[in-house]
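Reopening this ticket.

The earlier resolution said the output was attached, but the attachment link was broken on my side. Pasting everything inline this time so it's all in one place.
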Amino acid sequence: MLQDSVKESDAQSAWLQVYISSPEKQKQLYKRTLMVVVISQIFGGAGLAAGITVGALLAQDMLGTDSVTGLPSALFTLGSAGAALLVGRLSQAFGRRSGLAAGFLAGGIGAIGVVISALTNSILLLFGSLLIYGAGSATNLQARYAGTDLASSTQRAKAISMAMVSTTFGAVAGPNLVDVMGEFAISIGIPALAGPFILAAAAYILAGLVLLISLRPDPFIVAKAISNAQRTSSNLRLEENSNLLSINRRGIFAGASVMVLTQFVMTAIMTMTPIHMRHNGHGLNEVGLVIGFHIGAMFLPSLVTGYLVDKIGRAAMAIASAITLLATGILAAMGPADSMVVLIIALALLGLGWNFGLISGTAILVDSTPPSTRAKTQGSVDVWIALSGALGGGLSGLVVAHSSYAALSIAGAVLSLLLIPIVIWAGIGKQSKITKVKTTQN
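Inline output:
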């Protein structure tokens, strides 16, 4: 048995050595990984869109009150927090393939549970299923890291953007299929608002299967092996390592803060927009259109954003995120509630500000973590991102119920300005320059 284990270890070392010693093989695997992630994210985006579009409306119908309409968003973002931790730990131990596939499959099971809860009118099952459904949301975000495992420091933001822009196709289609899926649901005896969750279940399960079958060799396992080999042959002095570690800690805090704050502001305003629109006479189709533009703006600009983050810097784009979210809050608060044009522009800006923050924050985080701890750190940070979304979604309903949608929007605008002093304090521009000379990152 011991001999079999040694042989298996030798075989694993042999195939890893092929990638360690061949930059050409690394490039090929990098391109293949991006292609697999892109395909999975198309499906993942469609699964993500269901809960965003009709989750609050489904709870409103089942509970008969507006005061807890932020609860579905809070539940599936809370569920995504736990899932982010588990997916990060699984990825660190067994590779991206295992972690991401498990997360998407769990999200699909949660979506099935939401459909059953609507059919049986079970509030408890709805809440429990939304928690599990949140695993898909967490995995959808963590998939962006898979493309960075074999990317150089000048490719990372573009790799993140490739994963995110592919989400657009499913994410934009999802809200605009609300009526179609609602009619399909009614035709098979299921409440109309549960229809999009049927699409979500199929989409998340397909995303998981694509990763499970196709993400081979695992890019994270290869990246760790390359890093270990480079560290063994490195002649960096201990003092240099200690200095870089200190900078990395500051970078981790800054990257996490950028993503956490943008997620909080985006989720709070987005969650209450469908309710705000319903109260002002807009129909379900119009809600789907506005959310479709919002989700499109969250993901579609990613290719340009990734280029800008790599070209002009992480700090500049994080500050651009703050300014964009500030404009969002002012427009949403002061624009006429019955104007579709204003709502579309406001929600598009909200998505764009989130996009700037997520890609710049993710790049800062990847720059600041070595492969030996990267996936675990990324999972832990994504927990805080998910919790901030849960808090934003949960508080948004209370704020609107006791004040107004305008007050919620202004609060989000003011909060987003905290990004600017955080980025300046962390000295992200200096960190990025140091990162570029760190060959041990990959």
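Reporter confirms the inline version is readable. The chain has 18 helices and no strands. The first helix runs from residue 2 to 20.
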